[in-house]
Write a structure and sequence with these properties.
This protein is an alpha+beta fold. The protein contains 9 helices and 19 strands.
């Protein structure tokens, strides 16, 4: 009996997933739990495995396809089982919706405006032959669409066709050669889309203030070994910053908000996203209800989430629900930077490195450990004065770090 392989629901909030790559091809024999495909949802990649042993009879979703949770992506049968291939068309279960959207876009482009001279839709046929994503990519990579053979439904040109054409294309005279062509897909594409959305929808302002981390450095150096022995986790400076930020958000909740449908919606929960740098880009797993957790609970959860992010083992639920984000580039030697808002959140904190420098105090020069805090906020929702007070609250807590323990 044929067994269906479906797009799994990997988290409560997951609605769809992207087929990143197939690890098998039609006709391959597989055992139960053999990896079949790599899928992605919310920047997290997973392997879909075979529910039963057998033969991969039909692959219904192409690489790069976006598939709703619960939809069939492949069929597995017993080795000698009769199978009606005509009952399943490749991409049948997912292509129609995409095709409908693209067709409407083409129709809108071809439809003349009121009062405009009617132009024969010669180009519309060409547009229908090329997906909008493929057309955009061809322009970016300098590929002549007329030379590309389409492999999509009905000979339609898709992104993969453009990428293959770009790999084999010879540069024209005077044009620089590509060392390599890196497809903007998977996690990197999700990040690009999110950043573009944030940049378009949120007028950003950055405010930078200094915090004297001398006492925090002293406390951590004195206590880190004892804390690790007692609580089983090594507390980092970022853990102190997360705790201080969560407490500051309790006092200044406007920074813990989003802007939607003309309303500033202030969140009840304080769920802090912590940016984790990976080779492919940033992931921002979420520490939920950070204001209610001890410093050591935050430290354990932060380490666990960071380890899972680097091992590609985060679930979509661990990436969703953030209300405020923190990104720390201090470990890379960065002092000041302007992070992009983690849309649709209204604010993000960028943390620079701790630097020893001379500071004038009480008429004398002293060497202190100074760190820059860079708060970027959506000026549609928040003004400079409350942001300054919020940042000062973080500074006050970090300069009296015993309050965080």
């Amino acid at each position: 009996m044929a067994v269906t392989v479906i797009m799994p629901k990997l988290g409560m909030a997951m609605r769809e997933g992207t087929i990143v790559s197939w690890l098998v091809k039609e006709g391959d024999k597989v055992e139960k739990e053999t990896p079949l495909a790599q899928i992605e949802s919310e920047k997290v990649e997973y392997e879909v495995t075979a529910p039963e042993a057998g033969v991969v009879r039909k692959i219904l979703a192409k690489e790069g396809s976006v598939v709703e949770v619960g939809k069939t992506i492949a069929i597995i049968t017993a080795e000698n089982e009769a199978f009606d291939e005509g009952a399943f068309a490749p991409t049948q279960l997912i292509a129609e919706a995409v095709k409908g959207v693209e067709a409407k876009a083409v129709e809108a482009e071809a439809k003349p405006r009121a009062g405009a001279e009617r132009v024969e839709p010669v180009e519309s046929e060409e547009k229908q032959r090329v997906s909008p994503a493929a057309r955009k990519l061809a322009k970016e990579l300098g590929v002549d669409i007329s030379t590309v053979m389409g492999t999509g439904p009905g000979g339609r040109i898709v992104r993969e066709d453009i990428l293959k054409a770009a790999e084999g294309r010879q540069p024209s005279a005077g044009e620089p050669e590509y060392r390599e062509v890196i497809p903007l897909k998977g996690m990197r594409r999700v990040i690009a889309d999110r950043m573009a959305e944030s940049w378009t929808n949120s007028p950003r302002v950055t405010q930078v203030m200094e915090v004297d981390m001398t006492e925090a450095v002293k406390l951590r150096e004195q206590k880190v070994a004892d804390w690790e022995k007692e609580h089983g986790v090594r507390v980092t400076y970022n853990d102190l910053i997360v705790k201080a930020t969560a407490l500051a958000l309790l006092k200044y909740p406007l920074l813990n908000s989003t802007l939607a449908e003309g309303e500033i919606r202030v969140f009840k929960n304080i769920n802090i996203g912590i940016a984790v740098a990976l080779e492919e880009g940033l992931m921002v797993p979420v520490i939920r209800n950070a204001d209610r957790k001890t410093l050591f609970q935050i430290a354990r959860e932060s380490k666990d989430l960071s380890d899972k992010a680097r091992a590609s083992k985060l679930t979509p639920d661990e990436l969703l629900g953030g209300t405020f984000s923190i990104t720390n580039l201090g470990g890379l030697g960065v002092e000041i930077f302007t992070p992009i808002l983690n849309y649709p959140q209204n604010a993000i904190l960028g943390v620079g490195k701790i630097t020893e420098m001379p500071v004038v105090r009480n008429g004398g020069i002293h060497i202190r450990s100074i760190m820059k805090l860079c708060v970027v906020y959506n000026h549609k929702a928040v003004s400079g004065a409350p942001v300054a007070r919020f940042t000062q609250e973080i500074i006050d807590l970090l300069e009296a770090p015993q309050k965080l323990v």
